[in-house]
Amino acid sequence: MGSTAASSEIPIVDFAKFLNGSGEEKEEVARQLDSAFCNVGFVYLKNHGVLKELVEECFSWNKKFFALPQETKMLAPHPPGGSHHRGYSGPGAEKVTQHIYDKDEISKQNDDFKESFESGNIHDTDQPNIWPPDDTLPGFRPFMETFFLSCSALVHNVLDALSLALHTPSPNLLSSAHGKSRFQLRILHYPPVAADQLKDSKRSRINAHSDFGSLTLLFQDSVGGLEVEDPHQPGIFRPAPPIEGTVLVNIGDLMARWSNDRWRSTVHRVGLPERAGLGEMVPDRYSIPFFATPDRDTIVEALPGCWDDGSRPRRYGPVTTFEYVQMRMETLYN
Ligand SMILES: O=C(O)CCC(=O)C(=O)O
Ligand SMILES: [Fe+2]
C-alpha cells in the first residue's frame, strides 16, 4: 500500500507488486503511481529492481570520478551549447532555470554550485558518449554502461505501469514510444558549502526547476537537501529526504503535457539539509539522476484516458519530442 497521508506528501510504493505480482496487484500499483503523479508528481519506489549493490557501486564511481584532478575531468569536456548533452561540466557551467527563455534573465540567476558528468545509450549516434581515456579511471565506462541498462529497464517498467493506469489501447504504448531508450545517466557532485550560504535559499545547490523529459529516476546519498514544491501551496518547499533502498521517480514537463496535465511535473531544488546547523559546513552531496525522454520522432499529444470531449479538452497541440527538447536544451547552456 502507498501511504495515504496528506496528498502533498510523497508516497512510498512497493514496486515488487508490479514486477512480480498478480494482475490485481499490478493494477493496484498502477493506481498508486497514478495517484502519486496526479497529486505531487513524485513517488518513492522500493523493491524497484535496480540492485542495491549496483546503486552503491555507482555512488562509489561518482566519488572517484569527481575526485580526479580537474585537468583529467576536462579530458571529457561537455561540448559547448545545449544539443550534445554528454561529458563533464564543471561548477557553474549549467544554469538550471524555470521557464525563462530570455538570455538576460537567465544570466541574473544564481549559478548552481555543482559539477556533473553525463552519459547515454551507447547506440545513440545523435549524442555519442564522451568518456575520459580508459587509463584515467579503468572500469568507470563499463560500469556506467551497465548501470544505464539497469535504470533503463526500470524506466520501461514504470512506463508499463503508467500505461496500465490509463488502460491505453496498447498495453505498452508508453514503453514503445521510448523504444530506443535514448536516456541520460547523470552523476552529480555538489562540493561542500557553508550552511549560511544555503540559508533562506540565498543560494541553492541546484536552483528550483522542473525536469523536462518524461520521467526522472533519482538516487540520492544520505546528505539530504532535496526539496519538492508543495503542489497545493505554491512557493512552499517540502523536504524529500533520502529513504534507504528507494529511488525517487518524478514526472517531467513533457510527460505532464502528454498526460494533458493529469500528472504533475513538480518544481524541486537542492538546498540546506534539514538537520544542518548554521555555522557548519554542509558536506559534499552526490546524486544520480536518470532522465528518460521518448524517441525523438514520438508525437506527443494528449494520451488516451487523459482527455475527453466534455470537461477535459485537449490543452496542447501535438509536438515531437525533438522539437520540444531542442527548445528546452537551448536555454540550459549559453
Ligand atoms: O541532486 C539532486 O538530488 C537533484 C538533481 C536534479 O534535480 C536534476 O539534476 O534535475
Ligand atoms: Fe531535477
Automatic annotation (TrEMBL):
Residues that span the membrane, as ranges: none
Protein name: Clavaminate synthase-like protein
SUPFAM superfamilies: Clavaminate synthase-like
Keywords in alphabetical order: Iron, Metal-binding, Oxidoreductase
Residue ranges of every copy of the Fe2OG dioxygenase domain listed in the record: 181-294
GO annotation terms (biological process): small molecule biosynthetic process
GO MF terms held by the record: metal ion binding; oxidoreductase activity
Gene3D superfamilies: B-lactam Antibiotic, Isopenicillin N Synthase, Chain
InterPro entries: DIOX_N, IPNS-like_FE2OG_OXY, IPNS-like_sf, Iron_ascorbate_oxido_reductase, Oxoglu/Fe-dep_dioxygenase_dom
Family that this chain belongs to: Belongs to the iron/ascorbate-dependent oxidoreductase family.
PROSITE patterns: FE2OG_OXY
Pfam family of the protein (one): DIOX_N
